[in-house]
Amino acid sequence: MTAVEHPARDGTGGPQGPSVRVPFPVVDEVARHCLQEEEPETVHIEVHLPGRLDPARLTAAFTEALRRHPRILMREAAGPWYRRRYEWELTPEPDVRVVSFPPPSRDALRTARTRALQEAPPLSAAPPIRLEVVRGAGPAVGSEATDAVGRPGPERTPGGHRETPDSRRPPTPGTTRAPTRTGTVLFLTINHTALDGPACLRVLATAAELYGGRDNTPSAPPVRTPDTPEPEDRKAPSTWTPPARVAPGSPEVSPGNGLIVTELGVPRRPKGSPYTVNDQLMAATALMVAHWNREHGTRPRPLRITMPVDDRPRGADMPIGNGTRLVEVTFAPEEVDASRMGELLRRTATRTRALKSADRPQLGHGAALLTAPVVPVAWRAAATRGLRRAAGPWTSTVLLSNIGRIPYALDFGEEAGRAHAVWFSAPARTPRGLTVTTASTAGRLHLALRWSRSLLGHGDGAHLRDLFEHYLHATQEREATGA
After folding, report:
1. Is 90 helix (H, G, I), strand (E, B) or coil?
2. What is the pTM for the complete model shown?
3. Among 75-79, 147-151, 211-215, 226-230, which stretch is predicted with the lowest mean pLDDT?
4. Which residues does 227 contact at the CB level (< 8 Å), separation at least 6?
5. Using CA atoms, how far apart are residues 51 and 68, in angstroms rounded to an integer?
6. CA-angle at 187, arms to 152 and 206, nearest 5°
7. Which domains does the chain possess?
8. Is the dihedral of CA 14, 17, 22, 28 positive or negative?
9. Burial 178-192, CB ≥16 within 10 A → b, else e
10. How far apart are CA 91 and CA 35, in angstroms?
11. Which helix (H) or strand (E) holds 356?
12. pLDDT digits (tens, 9 = 90+) for 313-341
């Protein structure tokens, strides 16, 4: 039974008491087996608002939103070593204080990002999330770069332009000063063993509606024209072939993840084109990694990109939990060629559409067998960790998680306003070591690159960001030529 099949996860009803227990679904159990303190399995979401929020009202609204989506109010139940399953224990109220308001400071946003990468909310207390409210964040703060120790990196303005030291000098007389930092950033940190980003964003949308009294009903998904891509001219590379790894850059001594976020324009595509924005993002990711690996002298190998697919509705009854399924898009080395962009985009569209339509368990049939409760869960944990290590060479090259257009207004009322930027980032443990996460808000693309610091350093992340931006732009330059 998966997280999206259990009746207690429905946002319209709830558990009848604190004794209700839910067996871990496959995704949760596999993640629980493979936890590491060095690289916590966290998802981070940051929502930027133009105005201020009242602490008491926000705390009350978010707590009520948790009650309206009771599947989020859960903790790992204790049990003997010989138990056959892990279980979630559903609770009627939070066990801990979920919402916090750190003191405003110049580095508050960077510190919150660092905490999201380093400190996962514990599974032993309900709910396994936390919400930090960073006050006094200006518009350009959202595009700062940070790593797991909070060092600043190259900065960009909201338009995506890198700031130079000269551009940050005090303005000369007669020029317009930068706006005062009056905004607010909501930081959601999620223990990914229990929940995913879209589910928690649904809870935040409910909190926004309760706080501001504005309608946060999800907008309808964009209407897609029927796709008629050209037939495949060759088969995709075999999934049995070990894929390329992201070449090591300048790794850092301390463990954990690094992170860079930036804002770009949503890529254009011709009306009626056979590919989607997601396919453009996929092509840009493949070209970014191929370029990086060429620069570092690695032998060309097939690229395999993991892509989460989420078919859940976005209404108030959205299933809460880990509800995405993972598919893998594979490219032969000769296919990842920017000079044949039109062909790459059409091939990407064909493969992603086929994978999205396939009926497949969330982690595949092998994971379902591995988590069958026929032996004690502690024995299965040891077997899962051993198989994960053995399967390391076959792990995908990189993960691309495209949340897409944020379907909620995230409108907190007149004083706080509507969200103008939303960033997500997904865990980046080795052997994959790199994740690319995108979301679209207010007509802009919000990109987060997250990496394992045992593989890459901060300068490497900045270079990868620049490569991604370059190739994403290239998907538009050649879109009309079919090259």
Report:
1. strand
2. 0.86
3. 147-151
4. 274, 349, 353
5. 26
6. 155
7. 7-163+179-219+233-477 (3.30.559.10)
8. positive
9. eeebebbbbbbbbbb
10. 24
11. helix 341-357
12. 998 889 999 988 899 999 999 999 999 99
